[in-house]
Design goal:
Layout lengths: L6 E7 L3 H13 L2 E7 L3 H10 L4 E3 L2 H5 L4 E4 L6 H8 L8 E4 L5 H7 L8 E2 L2 E3 L20 E4 L7 H13 L3 E4 L2 H40 L7 H4 L5 H8 L3 H10 L1 H23 L3 H20 L10 H8 L4
Parallel strand pairs: 1-2, 1-4, 2-3, 4-5, 5-6, 8-9
Antiparallel strand pairs: 7-8
Bound molecules: NADP nicotinamide-adenine-dinucleotide phosphate.
NADP nicotinamide-adenine-dinucleotide phosphate binds next to helix 1, helix 4, strand 7 and helix 10.
Length: 325
């Protein structure tokens, strides 16, 4: 006999990597009686229906949320408040609104005041992802063994928090409750800064490549124009994977977690300058000490099962990329 679903009707607003992965796993596990989807474009709605990770789909989010017990907003952070404003009048009393945005303070600040009395807000963030986006990129195992952080505002309804926690547990995640400000600071270090560094390094390498090519042409020295790509296995390759992450999503994360990112970036640039000094003055012991410490951090990440010791499949490999985002 099949188990009773956790929710009669779930609305997924945004059907990209996260929304489609949630749809896949909710259907596989029978967690919702009906999964209603909504995306900005008719094309994404049609793809979602064709793949089958939703039971219905509409470009009008009101169609999806009408009668829904749980609404999961899976859009880029920059439009979460617009979506909340559009759906607010159609939400039924007792409905729970959650989201998957990578920034939490801005969501609570912007969405909280828009929701009607009797509708419960339980913001969330699955710390799982890949650099791929769109309705075809999702897969049901995305959240397995990853953390999902919930940041309920003070006085949040306990039953609503318990229901959202149960959903994430049933899709395979470990649930943690966290203060939203703390969340934004932690993620600024573990995810937002690494992405910024990757975007910056890949940008620098691409500028450099053009520059080297021009100089080579002038001096007739033989330098291949695509050397940066050709020898990317030297470390650059891993940065290119992170720097391929969705531009809209990441623009919104930096603009909405400005304070924490700038604070961590300040600290990082100081440390980088210290490294620059150590290289300039030949301070090998300082370099070696740091590299010993950082190697131990990698071992800690593996011990906590947040990274594989081997690359079993491409998907496994990718799931490590965005253990933020
Ligand atoms: P995605 O693959 O780019 O998908 C975004 C979805 O949102 C698309 O279906 C898009 O519709 C829809 N959308 C955009 N603007 C909309 C609007 N105004 N109204 C309704 N739908 C709209 O993004 P994602 O990677 O799933 O990320 C979604 C959220 O999850 C973001 O807030 C991100 O911070 C968070 N997150 C991402 C990751 C990750 O690794 N990707 C990890 C954890 C959390 P169309 O397809 O029609 O354009």
């Amino acid at each position: 006999m099949s188990k009773k679903p956790l929710f009669d009707r779930v609305a997924l607003i945004g059907l990209g990597l996260i929304g489609s992965s949630l749809g896949h796993v909710m259907k596989r596990e029978g967690l919702a009686g009906h999964v209603a989807g909504s995306a900005r474009s008719a094309k994404t709605c049609a793809t979602a229906l064709e793949i089958g990770f939703v039971d219905s789909a509409s470009v009008d989010p009101v169609d999806a949320v009408t009668g829904a017990d749980l609404i999961v907003i899976c859009t880029p952070v920059g439009v979460i408040a617009d979506v909340a404003a559009a759906i607010a009048p159609a939400l039924k009393p007792g409905a729970i609104v959650t989201d998957v945005g990578s920034v939490k303070m801005a969501v609570i600040r912007d969405v909280g005041p828009l929701l009607p009395e009797g509708v419960h807000l339980v913001p969330g963030h699955p710390v799982a992802g890949t650099e791929h986006s769109g309705p075809e990129s999702g897969f049901p195992e995305l959240f397995e063994g990853r953390y999902c952080i919930l940041t309920p505002p003070p006085g949040a309804d306990k039953r609503a928090v318990a229901a959202v926690s149960e959903l994430w547990r049933r899709v395979g995640s470990d649930v943690e409750l966290m203060d939203p400000k703390h969340h934004d600071r932690v993620l600024a270090i573990t995810s937002h800064l690494p992405h910024l560094i990757a975007y910056s390094i890949v940008g620098t390498a691409s500028d450099l490549e053009e520059h080297i090519s021009r100089e080579a042409a002038a001096s007739k020295e033989e330098i291949l124009t695509s050397e940066v790509i050709k020898y990317s296995a030297g470390g650059f390759r891993d940065f290119t994977r992170i720097a391929a992450s969705d531009p809209v999503m990441w623009r919104d994360i930096f603009l909405n977690n400005r304070e924490a990112v700038l604070e961590i970036l300040g600290r990082f640039t100081e440390d980088l300058t210290a490294l620059q000094r150590a290289i300039r003055w030949g301070e090998g012991d300082s370099l070696h000490d740091l590299f010993e410490r950082t190697r131990a951090i990698r071992r800690g990440v593996i011990d906590m099962r947040q990274a594989g010791t081997f690359k079993a499949t491409e998907q496994e490999d990718e799931a490590e990329v965005d253990s933020e985002s």
